[in-house]
Amino acid sequence: MESLVVRDLKTYYHTYKGYNHAVDGVSFSLQKGEIFGLIGESGCGKSTIGNSLMNMISFPGEIVGGSVLLGDVDIVQKSGAELRKILWKEIAMVPQSAMNAMNPCHKVGKQIMEAISLHMPELKPSQVKERMEELLVSVGLNKKWANAYPHKLSGGMKQRAIIAMALACKPKVIISDEATTGLDVLIEAQILALYRKLAEENDISIVIISHDLHMVSSVCDRIGIMYGGHLVEILEADEAAHARHPYTKALFASQIDASDFSRRVEPINGYVPKLVEPEDQCRFYSRCTERCERCSGPAPVLKEVAENHMVACWREDA
Fold first, then answer.
1. Where does residue 45 fall: left (phi above 0), alpha (psi -120 to 50 degrees), or beta otherwise?
2. Sign of dihedral through CA atoms 14, 17, 22, 26?
3. What is the pLDDT of residues 80-115, one digit of tens each?
4. Is the pTM higher than 0.85?
């Protein structure tokens, strides 16, 4: 059962030279209880997608087309009071630099209770407090930390507190943007295990946005590869070694594999494309070592090449 459906999402940024096509026609769906990884280089549009899913794009950004469906509700079409009823209750976000997202002037428990009180006004103060304490325990924190200010918590503890806040109103979908950035390897593993537990035990669907292909592959059910504002491949995480798009293969080859330190790391030569009024062609064309004559024409679209495997590459027609 689908909990989130994204169709032809387009989010552009106004510049003095024209529109920057940061997200240009992205489509994917999210199953109930599924963890979906969104991966790519810096500047490929990952975080813009995350903010677009929450309809939290502000000027100079603008969602110019597409839809984000939660059931039969299109988040893109909502604003103001209508949008506030959906955010936190239906879909929530663990933001980038989440460790610095808490208000340093208020205690951790108070900040979580504020989110609960705003979106669940039917609850009594005692019930709000009880809910807050349950959330802290559910993410592996002792409820005594509710009385601490954020600076008293370690990085991993702050991360868990932010996740507790995202869970406050029992959303169906959580967007996690670079959630483990700045954490050591052990804490990162604990946070990822927490996401897996939430997905399995509470049927929460999670989108994990990251640049770390191996990390995301280890916890996600499916992964989507972003490049230059386009989604170029979607495949099951355990099939990542059998990627078919040239960029996905190059991305794997450019990262260190902990299971094979003798393997040579290969750089991706060239530069990321300019996204201000870009040409209608494959965004990876200038860097691709497998390009053919057809690749210089209109950009390919995602199509299914195997079960649960979609690729946007003209070579798949060969």
1. left
2. positive
3. 889 988 998 899 999 877 667 889 999 999 999 998
4. yes
